[in-house]
Every structure is written in C-alpha cells, then in structure tokens.
Amino acid sequence: MSEDLVNIEVDGIPLKAKKGTMLIRVTDEAGIRIPRFCYHDKLSVAANCRMCLVEVEKAPKPMPACATPVAEGMRVWTRSPKALAAQKATMEFLLINHPLDCPVCDQGGECELQDVSMGYGEGISRYSEAKRAVKDKDIGPLIATEMTRCIHCTRCVRFGEEIAGLRELGATGRGEFMEIGTFVEKSVTSELSGNVIDLCPVGALTAKPSRFTYRAWELVQHASVAPHDGVGSNIHLHTYNGRVMRVVPRHNEAVNETWISDRDRFSYTGLGAADRLTAPMIREGDQWVTTDWETALTRVVEGLRGQPAEACGALLSPQASVEELYLAQQWLRGLGVRNLDHRLRQSDFSDQDRAPLFPYLGDALEALEQTRACLLVGSEIRKDQPLAGHRLRKAALGGARVMAINPRQVPFNFPVAETVSADPRGMVLALAGVARAALERAGRTAPEGFKALLQAARTDETVRAMAQALAEGEGARVLLGVQAHAHPHFALLRALAGLVCETTGATLGYLPDGGNGAGAWLAGAVAHRGPAGESLDAAGQTPDQWLQPGLKGCLLLNVEPDMDCEDPARVMKALGSAAFVAALTPFAGEALKRVAHVLLPVATFAETSGTYVNVEGRWQSVAGAAQPPGETRPAWKVLRVLGNMSGLEGFEYLSSEEVRDALKDRLRAAGVEGFDTVYRHDGASLAVPEASRGLQRIGAVGPYGVDSLVRRAAPLQATQDAGAHALARIHPRQARSLGLEEGDQVEVRQEGLSARLPLALDEAIPEGCLWLPVGVAATRHLGRSHGAVELNKV
Amino acid sequence: MAGNPTQRKSDVLNAHVRAEIDDWLSRYPQDQRQSAVLGALRAVQHEHGHLTTELMDAVADYIGMPEIAVYEVASFYSMFELEPVGRHTISVCTNVSCMLRGADQILAHLEQRLGIRLGETTPDGRFFLKREEECLAACCGAPMMQVDHVYYEHLTPEKVDEILDSLE
After folding, report:
1. Least packed by Cβ within 10 Å: which of A228, A410, A767, B136?
2. Mean pLDDT, rounded, for A194-215
3. Confidence grade of residue B133 (pLDDT, cut at 50, 70, 90)
4. Which sites bind [2Fe-2S] cluster (chain B) (predicted)?
C-alpha cells in the first residue's frame, strides 16, 4: 500500500496521494480549490475547458490539474502568477462567446461560470467583436436549452455515454461552428436525462418546468427522500414561500450517488394538480360538499363502525410512509378490520406465509456493482428502479453477465447476455429450465414438489447458459422485479428462484414496486402479518379475496383504485357496491369521487415528515418541506386522530418520530436483527401452469404511471416514455395475421370489458401475447393484467 | 432498441456499400468497430453523392454505434457533404503558392463560366464549386484544382474550360 503512495507538494502543503491519481482529485480531497468546468468526479476526464491549469515544477507550460497524474516529488502551485495568468486567460477566452447577461439567465446565482469569473475573471471585457449565437434546440419537455450559453465542456455528452448509457447529445460541427445538441430534432429519452441540468456548469441546459420561476438564492433547501421506487434516492426539495419549486439530487454514495431519476426530479410538478384536494369532502346523495375536519372524521369513524368488520378492508399505498402504514394497520386492526394490504398489484399470494420479513434486495445497493452474474426475473430495472439499474449497468460494463426472463425484450442500456421473453407460463418454464440445468450441473436431484415443473421445463442452450453463469459468477444474484410480483404465478417464480439460488449459490433479491414496499411489510401492512413480521391471531384475507361484491366498508390510503390495483374493473365494482368507502388522499380523482363517501385531504411526501425503508433495508426519515395546501393534514396525524376518536389505546403520539420509534421497538422486541432472502419451498407439489388459449394479455406499469403524484406530473406525462407506454403492443407477424397495422385504433375485449387504444407493432413482444399498459387511463376499465384477450380493429 | 425493428435502418445500404464497409471493419479490432466510420461514410457518400440523416443512421446501425456519434464525425470533416451537391466536386486551392500564381483568376473564371458562386451547385446538377480548399500539397504545379479525386495543375482559364468540357 505505502509504496503506491507518493509525496507531492501543493502550494507549499505536503500531501500524500496514490500514484497516478489525477492532481485535481488530490487537491479536492485536501480542500485546495482549483477552478474547473469540464472535470466531474463521476465522469471521464476530457481536459477540454483548460480552466484548471496550474503551475507544475519543471513543466514548461501550465498543466491541467484534471489530466495530470501525481508523481513522487511533484511540486504544484495553484495560485502562482503563472497559474493565475493561465486561469485568467482561459476565463477570458471562455467569456468571448458567452453572453454577459447573467441577470436574465436562469442559472444566474448558481452558475459555475459566474462564480469562477468572479474569482478569476476580469471586471471588463476586451472583446468588442460580434459574439456567436447558436440556435436553441427542443430536446423534450424536461430540459430547456439556451445553447448560446454553452461553453463546450461536454459534461452532458459524457454523461449520456458513460452514465445514462444512451448517447443522445453530441458535439457536431467544428471550431467556431461546434454545437452541442442532438443534431436532428429529437427529444432525449434517458430516464436519467435530468441530471445534465445539474451537470451543466452554465445556463445552457436548465430545468424546463421550473425555469424563470425563482432565483436560486430565494429557495430554501430541505433534505428529503424520493418515494417513487425502492431505491429511496436522496433528494433536496427546494421551496419558495412553502411551495416546492424544484428537486435536485442529494449526494449519498451508498444510495443514489449523485444522480436521481427524472421521475424523482420532476414528480413534484404534480403537487399542484388541478384536482388536488384542499378540504375534507363528504358525499351527500350525488353531491360532493366541502366540510370541516371534525364532521368528516366523525363520518369516517361511524361509517366504518357501521359495517361488519369482517366485511371491511383497506388498501394502503406502497408509497405511504412507515408511520402512516403502521398507524393505519394499528387503527384498522383495533377496529377489527383484518383485510388490509399494500400489495395492490399482486395477484398470487399462495406462498405469502413463507415470504421473508420484507422484500429485501439481498444486499446493499452498492453490492450490485460487484455481481458477476445476475438473472432478472420480471424486471425492467432500468425504468422501474433507474438507479439500481445504474449499479447493475456498472457491473455489466465490467464484464458481468446480466440475464433476463421477462414478458418482453426490454431495451437495456448495457450489454446483456441471455434473455428470454415469454408469456407468463413461458416465464415459469424458462426459470424451471434454469433450475433444472443448475441441478444437473450440481449433480443433484430435484427436491420434493418440483418434479412435474422441472419435467415440463424448457431445456435449451439459453437456460443452460443462465444456470452456468449463476453457478460460476461471483456474487451471483437472481432478482425478482416488479413484474414478477405482479405475475399470476408469483409463487412458482419464487419457489424456482429459491431453488436456483440454493443450487447455484446465488443470492435471491427483491425489487418490488413502490417507494416503501419494504417499510410496508415491516409496518405490518399485509393481511397475514403484523408489525415486525409478528404472526396474527387471525390473518386477514388477501385483496383478491375480499375485493369482491359483498364488500361493506373500505379505507383507501393514497390509492386510486382504477389505476393502482390489479384488476381495476373488479376493484371498482367491489368498491362501488360497498356501503361506506373513505379515502385519505392528496387528490380527488374521478374514480375516488365515484366510489368514496368521504375524502380526507392528506399531505404528500413533500409536505410531511415520514420514514421510508428502501430495498436494502435502509431507514430514511425526512421532515416535511412544503406547506400542505388548504386544510390538508399529514396522514399520520389523521390516522392518529381516527385512532383516538375510535376510542383505541396507544394513539398518543406527538410526532412521527415517536411512531417510527414505536415500530422500531417492536422490531427489537421481535428479535429482528439481520435479515435474509433465503427461500425454501415447503415440498408441496407445484403444478405446471395450464397452457392458455388465445391471445394472452401481458403488461406492466410504466415509469410514469406508478402513483397518483407521478401520474399528475405534466412534464413527465409529456415525455416519450409516457407516450410510448400508452399503446397496445403486438408482434408484427401476429399483427399481419390479424390484418392489423401500426397506428390502428384497436378494441381490446377482456371478459366482457373493453378498451380502445392505438396499436404499435413491436418485435419485443412474444408472439401470442398482447402488451397492454397498466396504470394508464386507456386500460383502467379492464380487468386482470393477465389472461385471454381479444383484439379487433375499430 | 425496442420499438419497431421489423425494418433495420441499415437496410438502405446496398450490397456494394456493405462490402466496402465490411472491408473497413476487417481492418480494425472487433471492439473498435467505430474506427470504420470514416471509411464507411466515404463509401456511402461516394455511392449517394451526399450524406442524409437516413444514410448516417444506416451507417450507425450497420457499425453499431450511436447515431449522434456518426453525426459528429460527418459534420466535423469538410469532405463530407450533408446537403445535395452536383455530380462533380471542384475544389480550387487559393492558398499562398496558388494565390501567387493566379488562383483568384481561376476561381473567378470558374464562377463566371458556371454562373454560380463558391459553395453552390449548377442548376443542372453537374458541378459543385466547393468552398475553397486550403493547401492540397501540389505547390509545384500551382495554380491547381481538384475535380472529384483528380488533381489538375498549371491551370489557365483555357485549360479549365477543357477540363470542364470533358466531364459529363
């Protein structure tokens, strides 16, 4: 170790550094500030802005600190007359073509160019000739461009290539005519694209939804956590007069590094949606009337009390905080309501008793980078959990074999090894094939119960290669993604994944939907377990069982029943027939207004304190940042009051921290310390799924359909990802045999229900399947997300 | 990429161009396929006269590199034409040696005879008077011009007429 270290001296300060490290990294760590534009810690070195020139002993010319490796005995001066002259000259060159109108620029006040020119530039410009002007580009609804301000640092270009894995921006032309852009008119489509806004050191790339609506110095910064996926990206909410004006990443190397997804960045734009609920409302006949909290709360308590508890249920959002979910289940169970769940999109609960304490990734997020082989089952990780996808991408670029068994061929932004795309039955048989190949390799016989399944398994080169990679790859993993959790045979997938892991030594991991899926399990927001995984005297029914006609009463916590649930048609029907439905919700959506009897306005993640547990089991507590609109109250307070009004004990919490600590105490009391994902099948015979007849529906929630807030974020809904997700998709050969063409308006029929939407031809869809999106308006009147459907041209 | 890949963007490249690109690809290591982009673009331009976005996308698809990276290369080099141009490309050298030997008169003669300005194409699509080239390393034969890939040296207006007449 010590022989790798070299001694250098910077501005007279002796420093030790690893040989070959770039000088700027060493000075940054030592707190010696060298100005820079193109250098970024997470990107490759371009050394094209020349701002970081410093004087190095024995070097005839100033050297760029970002591209100068340290060597023994090196002596550097960052503020010597020679260094300063070079920096000043660079600054002058950069400002030749840069507009000097900071007061009208959106970046003004937080501009690296402005800051550095204050420190290193001249007060006046010697340049009196014409400046160049560059036409602005339209690169989509999220990023505004003002390309005359661009100083060609190429951070955005390198970000696309190195981090997003999707090279969309480039430097075209040369010399005076060089421009950064897409060259052809197109939107950038990366799910991480918004990060170039932070990377851009000048005002060339700024946030389109928020530009010109504030000045950076007017904003108040609040630390928070994004609730839209299981990564729990750390963010800063920037508020002005209590309103969230924008969201930027908060650096946390272990979670999101320095990036956030576009979903986490722009979801705040839905906070002020037109249907935001600002006061409690009750239904009087066919009319919705605004009322006060006391009336509304009394109505809720009495309404639920008036129904037999066993005929009542509750749907709780997997985006809700730990505190909200814990109090909700305390209150409901206190009332005797046992049917409560956050697993809104799940349809197969048959193995829930053997489920782990919570759907755990199996390791730290950072460990995904070290895996040498990873099998994704039902996971579009790149769009579902973009920053977990980024970790896996790093592993893949390092040579890891990433494989997938998915309903459709997912576009990856990194090299992938074997992939299978198949209908639900085909996915099971493919994973069974991996299990069978793994057993054969290990020379083991199939455990009890698997015989029939392995007999029917797919046997080909692909599944054998998958088994081999998992058996040989260090730190191998099998990850069950969002679509595995929604799979009609989730239990079979889990049993097989468990067997594959047991046989190959791979680690099983979960990547469920929701920002707090893990927290929901820990808080006891499942029918069959209490908080801390405690067993219950009497388990409740699963949502597929109780969300049926005959339902009497229901509570919805930030759930839009036609968008957030498996089989929206059945859920809406059940709710429609219930005598009493209450919803705690930030938004008064159309569906809620149709089925609910009381609407209680509750705060979103940005407006209340709360805790979210991510897929690695990391508890992250945040404080409320924005002012909740109107009469809106934090949901945890509403639930606490409901508990008090119901005459229940143990609802005396004064802060959300107390609620959280109460749950932590229960975890401690239950002896929960470590956790794992080891899953062993109980030996019962597993049946081969029946072959299905006709066109099979497959589909999933798109990245911008995951929750009520994201669905109301207009800029996200204007993206290509959202647009591409609102289509029915079918393989071109299948379309030809049905006489259908790209862009046709089609009618989809499913068990007497129908929906109309445009058709896209897509080779990524297996033949025999029809991809229908979930969580979009077009399909909210349909039923199960799987099963037979008919397709006709309108 | 997903979407609709029933047709590939590289389908527009004909067998001849594909053979040329394959030849370039064979000269570089497997993991350095993008090195062939210059040769590929030259082959495509030779075949089609100029580079359209469609053709550049085809090259990107064929080589397997991002489209924007092909645009970067094509827009950087002045030898690539991104707009339609005439069949014959005429580049007159006006650098020091040629200038001293009367390149300006040669250029003026060309402009007058063809009825177009520098950077324009004749209406019949026959000639393209390319933006002037810098030194083409034929100072000993100054003044000179390059028509398509051929050097013509010791130019006089009469000689220019002769050359132009001999071209289709």
Report:
1. A767
2. 96
3. confident
4. 93, 98, 135, 139
**Residue B134 burial (CB count, 10 A):** 10
* Distance (Å) from the alpha carbon of A72 to chain B's nearest alpha carbon: 35
Contacts with B69 from chain A: Cβ below 8 Å:
167, 170
- Looking at 3.40.228.10, 3.40.50.1820, 3.40.50.300, 3.40.50.1000, the CATH number of the domain A360-510 comes to 3.40.228.10
Whether residue B140 is annotated as binding a ligand: the answer is: no
Q: How far apart are CA A389 and CA A230, in angstroms?
A: 12
Asked if the Cβ–Cβ distance from A170 to B6 is below 8 Å, we say: no
In terms of DSSP bridges, do strands A281-284 and A287-290 run parallel, antiparallel, or are they unpaired?
antiparallel
What number is the ipTM of this complex? Answer: 0.86
Highest CATH level, class, for A696-793: mainly beta
CB contact under 8 A, A183 and B76: no
Q: Which residues of A touch B53 (CB under 8 A)?
A: 183-184
Contact B84, B57 (CB under 8 A): no
Average pLDDT over residues A593-613: 97
Residue from A318, A381, A277, A284 nearest A638 by CA: A277
Query: Which of A157, A184, A730 would you mutate first to test chain B, the one with the most B CBs within 10 A?
Result: A184
Q: Which of B2, B68, B76 is the closest to A168 by Cβ?
A: B68
Enumerate residues 17 to 56 of chain B having a beta carbon within 8 A of any beta carbon in chain A: 53
pLDDT of residue A160: 95
pLDDT of A350 reads 95
Pick the CATH number of A281-349+515-670 from 3.90.650.10, 3.30.2000.30, 3.40.50.740, 3.30.565.10: 3.40.50.740
For residue A656, pLDDT over 50 is answered with: yes
Give me the CATH topology for the region A5-96. Ubiquitin-like (UB roll) (3.10.20)
Residue A118 carries which DSSP code? H
The mean pLDDT value of chain B amounts to: 92
* Percentage, residues of chain A above pLDDT 90: 93
Q: Is B75 at the interface with chain A, CB within 8 A? A: yes
Are A445 and A415 within 8 A, CB to CB? no
Does the pLDDT of residue B2 top 50, yes or no?
no
Whole-number Å distance between alpha carbons of A237 and A221: 6
A627-654 average pLDDT score: 96
Q: What is the pLDDT of residues A543-557, one digit of tens each?
A: 999 999 999 999 999
**Residue A180 distance to chain B (closest CA, Å):** 10
* pLDDT tens, residue by residue, A474-520: 999 999 999 999 999 999 999 999 999 999 999 999 999 999 999 99
* CATH numbers and ranges of domains, chain B: 9-76 (1.10.10.1590), 88-166 (3.40.30.10)
Judged against a pLDDT cut of 60, whether residue B161 lies above it is answered with yes
- How far apart CA A30 and CA A733 sit, in angstroms, is 62
DSSP state of A160: I
Q: What is the pLDDT of residue A205?
A: 97
- Is the entire prediction scored with pTM above 0.90? yes
Cross-strand bridge partners of residue B68? none
- Minimum-distance CB partner of B76 among A174, A410, A732: A174
Instruction: Let me know if domain A112-270 sits in CATH 3.30.70.20.
Output: yes
Q: Does A184 contact B at CB distance below 8 Å?
A: yes
How many CA atoms within 13 Å lie on the side-chain side of A207?
24
Which residue type is seen at A140?
A: G
Domain ranges within chain A, ordered by starting residue: 5-96, 112-270, 281-349+515-670, 360-510, 696-793
User: Which residues of chain A have a CB within 8 Å of the CB of B68?
Assistant: 167-170, 172, 182-183
Q: Closest partner residue to A409 among B2, B53, B67, by Cβ?
A: B2
